[in-house]
């Protein structure tokens, strides 16, 4: 027979495997679930075609007015980026990139943020800045999964470093999942709802409580002994008994002193000092 600790550890391992698999889903760039206004960039090409940020979607095709990718205004421009706003905090576990029209991004860095104000550079496990290997041509797809697991962020910025084919071109898909799917914070059968920068567990049944529905008030056998079952009658009797025991045995002068202390503490203190000096 396996010990309860071993069974618990095995369940945790299996759950972690499920979480990794579940948090490797396309996040909506290729499908169009992420709207055009959720994509932005610093510096886009305007000639001969507009390489807008909204064109930087995986497998996007060129058209008469677009190269079908985000293309930088100039390869010599500094501080370039392609930005994604998920509108809510999401768990991001990887990136897929492509080039287009003979151009591609050969290497890049990743910035991420919860609020769009404070940004973090994605790092290696040794705390050095991670430089991702990008594409080597304009047609292939390069996929990177994060070694340390998903990161939580609302905003992502791809920072191009090197390019090929004359300029930076990028088509992108983000791999990840919603906050609830990755962390599985709610104790079953609680239902998790993703909020803008947090999550909420809807506990079922209602006798489960706590941020993660972790407190189980549904079962009384672990909360009360056989000698005491909760009831308004018993509770009233206990409270009455306690009240009587507290008041019993007091002398009249002691009760009067309590009243004086309640009404005027200074006067009561004077009475006590007078009593002590006369003894």
TrEMBL record:
InterPro entries membership: FA58C, Galactose-bd-like_sf
Q: Which UniProt keywords apply?
A: Membrane, Transmembrane, Transmembrane helix
**The organism's place on the tree of life at top rank:** Eukaryota
Q: Does the keyword Methyltransferase apply?
A: no
Entry keyword annotation includes Membrane: yes
Q: Which Pfam families match?
A: F5_F8_type_C
Q: Where is the F5/8 type C domain?
A: 23-177
Residue ranges annotated as transmembrane are: 256-276
Name the Gene3D superfamilies on file.
Answer: Galactose-binding domain-like
Name of this chain's protein: F5 protein
Instruction: Give the originating organism.
Output: Branchiostoma lanceolatum (Common lancelet)
Organism lineage string: Eukaryota, Metazoa, Chordata, Cephalochordata, Leptocardii
Per the record, the gene is F5
């Amino acid at each position: 027979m396996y010990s309860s600790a071993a069974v618990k550890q095995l369940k945790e391992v299996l759950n972690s495997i499920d979480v990794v698999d579940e948090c490797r889903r396309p996040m909506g760039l290729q499908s169009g679930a992420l709207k055009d206004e959720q994509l932005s960039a610093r510096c886009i090409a305007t000639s001969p075609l507009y390489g807008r940020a909204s064109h930087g979607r995986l497998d996007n095709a060129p058209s008469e007015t677009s190269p079908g990718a985000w293309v930088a205004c100039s390869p010599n421009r500094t501080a370039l980026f392609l930005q994604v706003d998920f509108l809510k905090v999401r768990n991001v576990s990887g990136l897929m990139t492509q080039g287009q029209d003979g151009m591609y991004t050969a290497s890049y860095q990743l910035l991420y943020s919860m609020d769009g104000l404070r940004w973090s550079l994605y790092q290696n496990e040794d705390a050095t800045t991670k430089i991702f290997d990008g594409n080597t041509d304009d047609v292939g797809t390069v996929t990177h999964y994060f070694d340390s697991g998903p990161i939580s962020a609302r905003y992502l910025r791809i920072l191009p470093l090197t390019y090929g084919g004359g300029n930076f071109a990028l088509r992108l898909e983000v791999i990840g999942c919603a906050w609830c799917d990755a962390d599985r914070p709610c104790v079953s059968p609680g239902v998790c709802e993703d909020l803008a920068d947090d999550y909420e567990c809807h506990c079922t049944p209602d006798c489960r409580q706590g941020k993660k529905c972790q407190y189980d008030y549904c079962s009384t056998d672990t909360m009360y002994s056989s000698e005491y079952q909760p009831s308004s009658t018993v509770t009233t009797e206990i409270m009455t008994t306690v009240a009587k025991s507290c008041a019993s045995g007091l002398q009249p002068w002691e009760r009067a002193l309590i009243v004086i202390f309640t009404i005027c503490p200074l006067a009561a203190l004077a009475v006590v000092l007078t009593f002590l000096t006369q003894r």
